[in-house]
User: What shape does this take?
Amino acid sequence: MDLLNIIKDAGVIGAGGAGFPTHAKLTSQAEYVLLNGAECEPLLRVDQQLLAQFPDEILQGLDAVSKHIKANKAIIGIKGKHKKVIDILRDRIAALGLANYMEVKELPDMYPAGDEQVLVHELTGRVVPEGSIPLKVGCVVINAETALNVREALTGKAVTETYITVTGDIPNPITVKVPVGIAIKEVIAHGGVENLDEYAVIDGGPMMGAVLSDTNGYVTKKSKGYVLLKKDHYLIRKKSVTTDQARVISRAACEQCRMCTDLCPRYLLGHSIQPHKIMRALNYDLDVNKQQIAQLCCECNACELFSCPANLHPKTINVLFKQKMARQGIRYQPEEKDYQARSFREYRLIPSKRLVAKMGLTAFDRPAPLTQIEFKPEYLSIALRQHIGAPAIPVVSVGEHVKAGQLIGKIPENSLGATVHASLEGTVTEITDNAIVIKVGPYV
Assistant: This one.
């Protein structure tokens, strides 16, 4: 079986991002394969620890991907501040005989270094065109945990676990490996907070993660972190503003200073996205052709949580216009040109430490050591749609006993999707449109 079918059968997806099925990403040849070890979201600590703990496995997964797409070069991007991890990787690249085409490049400690288009530019000097993907400039991007899962797939292991950082205003920040489908509350309990009444939980990183309206959910393959903060913290209040509130505030208060545009990572790469013009469109510019640039927003939240001096909501307004364009069936048509990063880009990168301070997170910017914990959940709820594309189709029935790693959901015919597997042994107790519920334990 070739690599594509191996990782397809194992259910490998982009770990920590939108969850794009990895087998679909590797169908074309590319000059570069880039491993994203930037982990630019503040407070999260998964990738840097995986690279230190499992360097051989990650490098072998990266090597397999590189050979499959016939890449000439494999580059690992990791922030220069992680000196020990960089030394480990360079040593293991040499020891595994991969130094002829694989190398580590150091990234600046800025946000969003992990945005795949920013990463492409930092590691290759190329700029991905507007509305396009890295493959357009000869690059394929995967992250550290995805490479690890590729290596695991080659040994016959499906994706049934994921690594998560639990951090924030808690006594015990940790990073743990958990079974997919475990209750979120069971994971965050190990952070040392027993009563969540005073807390809000951000699903993901502080920048792009959303505040959970309900903490009774379950972990998916792409879950990467849970940030716990008191409900009155600035960041929680900011993220809890509704779209309607953001629209009213922004219409009334935007002074068109254009700081949101001047510090926008995609604008700095030479793209046409200009958030201040979308803010202007709320009141004055009703020309739909000028509103289409909102579709170029990558929703990194730099404008909303760092750049705007008036504490407004440019990202939210961009998303509002993106939704409007989608409803009207309007799609931005990019210019055909040779894109170049703007000449002043290097002077406008957002330092991570300043970003953390701006969000009031400096006190919580601490290690979250990888900790071995044996989780013993009573139930798992394994989502049928943990990825971009169509939801998986159940291939098990209520009452059926399943083994750990067993296929329980397949990809629909002729669709983009990913398989799902039982994380632990147990009995299927319920199948809904959204999930398969398993009571954990040996068959009785």
The first helix runs from residue 3 to 10. Residues 379-440 form a domain with the OB fold (Dihydrolipoamide Acetyltransferase, E2P) fold (CATH 2.40.50). The mean pLDDT is 95.
